[in-house]
Write a sequence for this structure.
């Protein structure tokens, strides 16, 4: 994937940006970016436990999220500066070279997994359904996490559609300033969240399943809160907090998936990516269609992020009551004996 994306970006750098073919080429490249970046992330997440020192998966994921969040902020600011100083062509060229550098590093790494091989084409078609059935029977919580991740993706799609409109309403002259700062501060929050997850004193003793659900819940709450105010500092504060909870949820979720057996981990990661990507794409499409005078950005984000909030609260309540009922029944049976 890195080889293809590197060559593609370098090719775009050679195309004159005032030519008629640049727009359709960029559209095709955007689709390819989505496809090949998903290929990369699925395989990388599946292989990450093999890189973890002393089997510390939480540490490995935390470091990965720190680097991801930091480079997200640096990349956003650096891209804006590069386009202004050296133009689009050189910016695409730098991007292309970064993929090729990544390719060289990955080739040098000793990556070894025991992924099950797919020998028949029919297995590929049946893989999705079989994977869902496998999770329901063997890992019901991971199946529940997929549903939460899908709902979270829908909510993320809604705030990505709504944020440009919200930014323009707040600052019509330079809406990019609001949009850019929100994501920059969200990325900063991501670094803080990853640093927290990297502290054993913070993670030790925590139930990762509950941590994932609660952090996803509060991430949605603060994304909703961002759109409920027009005070710039308050918006940025909420963006930082949303970023913290987002990264805590992502690390917890990744560790839960990576604790599955090596032989099936790649398929689990693929199903997870399908859940998140389909939710995100669906959220963007539905939010674009629903955006109107009635569905203002604040109401739209509150509606779509409200669904995972309600679902998670209901799941936590059901989980608590089911544990208490099981405890009560077991204690009753013990007393009866």
């Amino acid at each position: 994937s890195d080889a293809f994306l590197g060559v593609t970006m370098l090719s775009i750098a050679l195309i004159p940006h005032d030519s008629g073919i640049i727009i359709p080429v960029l559209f095709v490249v955007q689709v390819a970016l989505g496809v090949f970046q998903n290929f990369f992330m699925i395989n990388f997440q599946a292989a990450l436990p093999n890189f973890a020192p002393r089997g510390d998966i939480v540490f490995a994921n935390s470091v990965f999220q720190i680097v991801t969040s930091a480079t997200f902020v640096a990349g956003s600011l650096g891209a804006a500066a590069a386009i202004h100083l050296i133009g689009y062509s050189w910016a695409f060229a730098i991007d292309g070279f970064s993929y090729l550098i990544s390719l060289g590093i990955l080739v040098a790494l000793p990556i070894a997994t025991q992924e099950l091989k797919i020998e028949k084409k029919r297995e590929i078609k049946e893989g999705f359904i079989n994977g869902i059935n496998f999770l329901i029977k063997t890992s019901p919580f991971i199946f529940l996490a997929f549903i939460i991740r899908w709902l979270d993706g829908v909510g993320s799609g809604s705030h990505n559609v709504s944020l440009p409109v919200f930014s323009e309403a707040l600052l019509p002259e330079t809406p990019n300033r609001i949009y850019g700062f929100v994501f920059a501060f969200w990325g900063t929050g991501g670094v803080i969240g990853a640093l927290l997850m990297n502290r054993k004193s913070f993670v030790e003793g925590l139930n990762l399943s509950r941590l994932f659900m609660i952090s996803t819940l509060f991430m949605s709450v603060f994304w909703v809160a961002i759109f409920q105010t027009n005070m710039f500092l308050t918006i940025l504060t909420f963006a930082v907090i949303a970023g913290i909870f987002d990264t805590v949820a992502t690390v917890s979720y990744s560790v839960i998936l990576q604790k599955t057996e090596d032989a099936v981990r790649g398929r689990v990661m693929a199903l997870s990516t399908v859940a998140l990507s389909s939710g995100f794409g669906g959220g963007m499409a539905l939010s674009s269609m629903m955006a109107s005078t009635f569905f203002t950005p604040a109401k739209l984000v509150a509606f779509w992020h409200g669904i995972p909030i309600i679902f998670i609260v209901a799941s936590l309540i059901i989980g608590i009551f089911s544990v208490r009922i099981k405890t009560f029944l077991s204690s009753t049976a013990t007393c009866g004996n």
